[in-house]
Each structure stands twice: as structure tokens, then as C-alpha cells.
Amino acid sequence: MDKQETISIVSVCDNHYAILLVALIKSIEVNHHTSEKIDFYVVSDKISPQIKSRIDKSINKSIINIIWLEMEACIPKQFELPTDKTSYPVKIYMKLFIPYFMPQHLEKIIFLDVDMIMLEDVSTLWHIDLGDKIVAVVQDQFVKVMGNWGGVRNYEAFNLTADTKYFNTGLLVLIQKNGWSLI
């Protein structure tokens, strides 16, 4: 008999994108038809208590459990991130810190950007067999390789070639192998 699993999803959001977060969560909820429960970890970039409450009230708690994490607490102390207006917003870096703030007992995590909509049951994605790989990614639809417009301009500095495949980090399936820590 298969044991019931809990699907673990993480996303990062602020007040401005909260409506997209709700759409993502609802799309997962209405398309989820298998028995797994879903723990949805939201890394909050100062989402107001009122918006959090409205989101919590909008979900079917028999399917989805939202776990709110404050972004400042998710940033490892040993990292200093650029915070001036010329750099990316700090929330962009959160997917890199997943191994540092997600519970160590989890064996698999799905990361989803908030601007996504799930059209099928998330359990299909959850049960993908990655073999010996630790991450599943999606090749970007428009930027297929590093050397394309929109790719990584300094790809050669990373010992990559122009034809190295480029992937979109908005959807990641991460598997833990010997702990989450990367460093």
C-alpha cells in the first residue's frame, strides 16, 4: 500500500504579487485530484497581515496548508546581498537559499514562481522520477541557449559554450541528497 505523501511547494511573494499567488494556489487546489495534502511555503516579502488573512481564508484547508515564512529570516546570515536600486530585488535570490530555510526532513520540493498557473494535477509533477538527478528544470521557451538574446552574456566566464541550454528558474523540482545544504 502506498503511503500518503505531502507535496511541498515553495514560492516567494510580496503584496504587489499577492493576487498572482492566490491564482497560483487556487489553480493547484482545483486541479489536485489525488490524495496527497499540500504544504505551500510562502516566503513573504512583507505581505501585510490583512492580505495573509484573506489568502488563508480563500483556500481549502483540507487540501492546502500555507506556511508563512518571513523573507528576512530565510536569508542565511553568512550572505550579504546587494540592496541598492541597481541590483535585483532580494526576493530573486530566495530560490538559491531553499536549502537553508526549508525543513531538513523534506526529501523533495517544488519551487514555483507566483506568476504561474497549474493546469494539471501538481501530483504529476511531484511524482516525476528524476533518477539520480537532484533538480528538474524547464528549458526556457524563448531563450533556448546561453548565447541567445536574453541569455547569460558572460557565459564564457563560467566555462560554458554559447549552445549550453538555458533554463527558466520559475519551476524547479528539487531532490535532497544527503541534506539540503549546498555549502
Descriptive notes:
The mean pLDDT is 88. The longest helix is centred in the first third of the chain and has 14 residues, at 18-31. The chain is α/β, with parallel strands linked by helices and 183 residues long. Helices cover 20% and strands 24% of the residues. It has helices at residues 18-31, 49-58, 71-74, 98-101, 122-126; strands spanning 6-14, 37-45, 64-70, 108-112, 135-139, 167-175. The chain is built from five helices and six strands; from the N terminus they run βαβαβααβαββ. The protein has a domain at 6-127: Spore Coat Polysaccharide Biosynthesis Protein SpsA, Chain A (Alpha-Beta Complex), CATH 3.90.550.
Biggest sheet, spatial arrangement of strands: 3-2-1-4-6-5
Enter the CATH topology name of the domain at 6-127.
Spore Coat Polysaccharide Biosynthesis Protein SpsA, Chain A
Number-wise, the strands total 6
Radius of gyration: 17 Å
CATH class of the domain at 6-127: Alpha Beta
Order of helices and strands: EHEHEHHEHEE
First CA to last CA: what distance? 37 Å
Regarding quaternary structure, what we see is single chain
Structural class: alpha/beta
Global mean pLDDT: 88
| Helix content class | 10-25%
| Second rung of CATH, namely the architecture of the domain at 6-127 | Alpha-Beta Complex
CATH superfamily of the domain at 6-127: Spore Coat Polysaccharide Biosynthesis Protein SpsA, Chain A
Instruction: Please tally the helical runs, counting DSSP H or I stretches of 4 or more residues.
Output: 5
Poorly predicted regions = none
Q: What portion of the residues fall into strands of 2 or more residues?
A: 15-25%
Q: Main β-sheet, in a few words? A: 6 strands, mixed
